[in-house]
Design a protein that fits this description.
The complex is a heterodimer of chains A (269) and B (408). Chain A folds into two domains: 9-142, SH3 type barrels; 172-256, SH3 type barrels (Roll), CATH 2.30.30.240. Chain A has eight helices and 15 strands. Chain A has helices at residues 11-14, 53-60, 62-72, 109-117, 139-142, 167-170, 210-214, 225-235; strands spanning 9-10, 19-21, 27-30, 33-38, 45-50, 83-85, 89-92, 96-98, 163-166, 174-177, 182-194, 197-206, 238-242, 246-249, 254-256. In chain A, strands 1, 10, 11, 12, 13, 14 and 15 form a seven-stranded mixed β-sheet that branches. In chain A, strands 3-2-8-7 form a four-stranded mixed β-sheet, with no helix packed on it. In chain A, helix 2 runs antiparallel to helix 3. Chain B is mostly helical and 408 residues long. Chain B has one domain: Amino acid/polyamine transporter I. Helices cover 79% and strands 0% of the residues of chain B. Chain B has 17 helices and no strands. In chain B, helix 4 runs parallel beside helix 10 and helix 5 runs antiparallel to helix 15. The longest helix of chain B is centred in the last third of the chain and has 47 residues, at 256-302. Classes of the chains: A alpha+beta (269), B mainly alpha (408). Chains A and B meet through strand 3, helix 2, helix 4 and helix 8 of A and helix 5, helix 14, helix 15, helix 16 and helix 17 of B.
Chain lengths: 269, 408
């Protein structure tokens, strides 16, 4: 069964910043960023979730983001943030569950470092005794395919021709129509199932995206009345743009076809 | 006894929040200065914190996710980071004050300067966090904190004119000659102290540490319904004894000693001894609560494993953070910074952050997908909305007011 059952799936509500737990439900991190790959003219498809400060730094942006990301790169063998391929996710619901056990994951490495060098040396810090499993000990053997450190996985098909994008590259980028009309910054991505994969199907812009983020836009959050009313108003200030209407995608801006922005109730989903 | 033991999370949370060093002094201060004209704030706070603690406890029981988890999830990384910085900073300041507060209470009993006690208190807190399991910690300080009931006893023994006190409480007004902005300042400081965010951080994380699920709703609600009203009762008792002893003579109360004085007036040495035991236990409880809360917020924001139930080497970053925060707080406390002014300032500013903490709780408590049949009913939503609006107004008013009144 595929882990992602939502169709469409809005990444800000459903994936980004959600808690990531291992197969037993123990926390291992948060979804700090998402990686997409784009082959030729297809819409980018979701390949993996990224975790850790390096990924988070890119989401935060600015000086602070660089500081946070820098902290994540302190590891001597850093090769990008910890990454788990979508195919190795067990379930994506109110949190993201991995198919692997936390002891078999090569991350979070700072947890292991602090354990080995600081906490484990203070008298009274009992070692874990969960079935004689040495944390991380068998990582090399039992590590499920595709859950390795960043760089090893999520590279997609070995043909190497795919363009790699991160959610943080896209989110926050100004969206303009070809005529120059500004549609605000990109706030959310809508994914649709396409066979086994999920591809970006639409862009959401505008200030009303708080309603999406909080969960009001799709009827998941149903109260209290005051917030529902406020969020309904906010929703009117969002624009939905189909991926097909995209003209140009650069680091500084996203250009879309004139008249591509549909408000809710104007025909777009 | 078993029943009592199962209520100690609520009692520790509430006693640690309503009777921490800031409240101890602020309650006596407002009692001395305003009589019972600010008692309504405590009633308002008890209802508000009880409703939000129940909501946060319910969400934690159903989804396994405590409050700061929700803050990050629903507010996104940036706003959540601002909230984290504010909450962590303020809770850290309160931790400094609590450490100094425990030491001040011991000074009261021993006449040895509190500065000498701070290192010892720090070691004690470290041992408690490091060696004592969550339930043991909770029980010891929840139950010892009940010694604070001596304030209620003292209030009765003083034999005040209850009719006049009730009239003051029911028809609050600003006493003649008192500036209105200062009255409002203390109202917000009290509300901020009694609805401080670390209560929901601690209570919801504690609910997860207890492994509560939807089957434990009754236990969780009993904790809320016993704990917070008890905290409110103790706060009111301190206001009453201060109002009776100090208000008529116009004395000011701005120290731990002044808070305990009415008890010794009413009950003599035994009363004073009980009061000191209660104050030490309550401030140690508050120290643990604030310390754990700083760790909970950071760990939950970043998605680290956390908690006392985790094996230490499973939550190593969380435990390291607790140690660093504790040592830093002890260092700041040793600078002889005035813990009372510090805490009034911190809870007042804390009031400004309240909407950010409570909004995600209210939202997720209404999430059909996350909560299913356990989502908020109409009552929780009505009261929750009222408090969200109130706290937003308070939040907007807080900073200008601080400038006008220069903190009381």
């Amino acid at each position: 069964m595929p882990a992602i059952t939502d169709d469409p799936l809005h990444v800000s509500l459903r994936l980004l910043d959600r808690r990531v737990v291992d197969v037993d439900g123990e926390p291992v991190g948060r979804v700090d960023d998402l990686a997409f790959e784009q082959d030729a003219d297809d819409a980018p498809r979701l390949v993996s979730i990224l975790m850790g400060p390096e990924a988070l730094g890119a989401r935060l942006g600015g000086v602070l983001g660089r500081v946070v990301a820098g902290a994540g790169r302190l590891r001597p063998d850093a090769a990008g943030p910890p990454e788990v391929a979508v195919t190795d996710l067990e379930e994506v619901d109110t949190e993201v569950r991995l198919a692997a056990h936390r002891d078999d994951l090569p991350f979070p490495r700072s947890e292991a470092w602090v354990r080995d060098h600081v906490i484990g040396r203070i008298p009274g810090a009992e070692r874990s005794s969960s079935g004689g499993k040495e944390p991380g000990g068998e990582a090399g053997v039992r590590q499920p395919p595709g859950t390795g450190r960043g760089g090893e996985v999520g590279r997609g098909p070995a043909d190497g021709g795919a363009r790699r994008l991160r959610a943080s590259d896209l989110l926050g980028t100004p969206v303009v129509e070809r005529s120059g009309r500004r549609l605000g910054r990109l706030r959310d991505l809508r994914l649709r199932a396409d066979g086994d994969v999920h591809r970006i199907d639409g862009l959401v812009t505008g200030r009303g995206v708080v309603a999406e983020r909080l969960g009001y836009a799709y009827g998941e959050v149903v109260g209290p009345a005051l917030l529902v009313a406020l969020m309904r108003r906010a929703e009117r200030r969002t624009s939905h743009i189909d991926w097909e209407d995209l003209v140009e995608l650069t680091a500084d801006r996203i250009v879309v076809r004139d008249g591509a922005a549909a408000r809710p109730g104007e025909g777009a989903t | 006894m078993k029943k009592l033991a199962s209520l100690t999370l609520g009692i520790l949370t509430a006693v640690g929040a309503f009777i921490d060093i800031g409240d101890l002094v602020t309650d006596a201060l407002v009692g001395a200065r305003y009589g019972l004209n600010l008692a309504w704030v405590t009633l308002l706070a008890v209802v508000g914190i009880a409703v939000y603690a129940e909501m946060a406890g319910r969400v934690a029981a159903v989804t396994g996710r405590p409050v700061f988890d929700l803050v990050r999830e629903r507010l996104g990384p940036r706003i959540a980071l601002v909230d984290l910085t504010a909450s962590f900073g303020l809770t850290g300041l309160l931790l400094v004050a609590e450490l100094a507060g425990v030491a001040l209470a011991i000074e009261l009993a021993t006449s040895v300067s509190y500065l000498a006690w701070i290192p010892l208190v720090t070691v004690l807190v470290f041992v408690l966090v490091w060696r004592v399991p969550f339930t043991g910690m909770e029980r010891t300080y929840g139950v010892l904190g009940l010694a604070m009931l001596v304030f209620v006893w003292a209030a009765v023994a003083l034999g005040p004119d209850w009719g006049a006190l009730l009239r003051d409480a029911a028809t609050p007004n600003v006493p003649a000659g008192e500036p209105v902005p200062t009255y409002v300042f203390y109202a917000i400081a009290l509300l901020g102290a009694q609805m401080t965010p670390y209560e929901v951080f601690f209570f919801s994380s504690g609910a997860v540490e207890h492994g509560w699920t939807a089957e434990n709703f009754l236990e969780m609600r009993m904790n809320v319904l016993v704990g917070f009203p008890l905290g409110g009762l103790l706060a009111l008792a301190i206001q009453v004894v201060a109002a009776v002893v100090f208000h008529p003579v116009g004395a000011e109360a701005e120290s731990v000693a002044m808070t305990a004085l009415p008890v010794s007036v009413a009950l003599g040495r035994v009363g004073l001894a009980l009061a000191i035991v209660g104050i030490v236990a309550a401030t140690i409880g508050a120290t643990l609560e604030t310390l754990m809360s700083t760790g909970y917020t950071v760990a939950q924001y970043f998605g680290w494993p956390w908690g006392k139930f985790e094996k230490r080497d499973r939550a190593s970053r969380f435990n390291l953070l607790l140690i660093v925060v504790l040592l830093a707080a002890a260092g700041v406390a040793l600078t002889t910074i005035d813990p009372i002014r510090l805490t009034i300032f911190a809870v007042f500013l804390g009031a400004a952050t309240l909407p950010f903490t409570y909004l995600p709780v209210l939202v997720v408590a209404n999430d059909v997908r996350a909560m299913g049949e356990h989502r908020n009913g109409r009552l929780a939503n009505s009261i929750g909305t009222f408090y969200l609006v109130l706290l937003t107004v308070v939040s907007l008013a807080a900073i200008p007011l601080l400038a006008i009144t220069t903190a009381g």
